DNA sequence: CGTACGATGTAACATAATTGCATTTAGTGA
DNA sequence: TCACTAAATGCAATTATGTTACATCGTACG
């Protein structure tokens, strides 16, 4: 999602040591303009040099815990991962293609959500909001 | 979510025969004011009389396909199920407690989403929109 | 009746993610 | 430099959730 981000800096800001594997995972997540599944990320990394599937899961968990990466639920069974919102990236909604599983980022302005009233009155603690559109993407629609 | 709904009627409207198991599943889904996981539904049904886990999954799939029940993704690994929006039930956002897994329905007005522009310009086919807040519910927050 | 088809049960399988434990790596002080 | 420690990674097994294949049951209809 970002070529302005320095991945080692993102890690050190999050108080995480910049191991080779962490940087590799973060590069894959960050250099894509759309979120990927753990499997996508693993497969991409394996093409270059070996890494363990579990290591990928663990690094993703760690990055999510430290707010570097965002875990996004889909209309399917696997989570997808993208860079967490930060000064360069506003929170934004996603589109999930129920046919091919491709997930796309939508522009922050495409869907405006007013949650001011909600925040004022909700008795629990709010961590994040997720807005997702499910449907059939342009490509899959054309094929049918 | 609804005591105004006649479950046999919902089934026949969806052109589904009203088998005992379908009615039982739909009662559990419909009589709760919050969405449940397939496991929750199965456990509840098993308390009364025997039903197979797979049957529950199949009935839920069927009801989702026919628009009677809505499949809702959570911040966790399992899907949750609630009555699909209909004349008695507007679409509405949900709150998911990352600690206890409880999912609650929020009022349709609590979060207003303007997607008019998006619908006009998006090149794919839109099936549904999901808005979910993740956080810690009041109960879990008090315990900590 | 009997037959045909939809509904259900059962076991096996598939997928995504997690856990336990062994091994490797990197950093730190003697 | 070496030894020690803690963190990071690898590997195998396990868990959680959901799906498939196929057998059986039940019911509507000729």
In brief, what are we looking at here?
The structure is a homodimer of 144-residue chains. Chain A is α+β, with helices and mostly antiparallel strands. Chain A contains six helices and seven strands, in the order ααβααβββββαβα.
Structure notes:
2 copies of one chain form a homodimer. Chain A is an alpha+beta fold. Chain A has one domain (7-143): Winged helix-like DNA-binding domain superfamily/Winged helix DNA-binding domain (Arc Repressor Mutant, subunit A, Orthogonal Bundle), CATH 1.10.10.10. In chain A, 38% of the residues lie in helices and 22% in strands. Chain A contains 6 helices and 7 strands, in the order ααβααβββββαβα. The first copy, chain A, has helices at residues 7-13, 20-31, 38-48, 53-65, 116-121, 138-143, and strands spanning 36-37, 69-72, 80-83, 94-97, 103-105, 112-114, 125-136. In chain A, the strands form 2 sheets. A 3-stranded antiparallel β-sheet of chain A has the order 1-3-2. In chain A, strands 5-4-7 form a 3-stranded mixed β-sheet. In chain A, a hairpin with a 7-residue loop joins strand 2 and strand 3 (80-83). The longest helix of chain A has 13 residues, at 53-65. Chain A starts with 6 loop residues before the first helix and ends with a helix. The mean pLDDT of chain A is 93. The A-B interface holds A 71, 73-75, 77, 95, 97-98, 106, 110-115, 117-118, 121-138, 140-141 and B 71, 73-75, 77, 95, 97-98, 106, 110-115, 117-118, 121-138, 140-141. Strand 7 (125-136) of chain A pairs antiparallel with strand 7 of chain B, so a sheet runs across the interface. Chain A binds a DNA duplex (30 and 30 nucleotides) through helix 4.
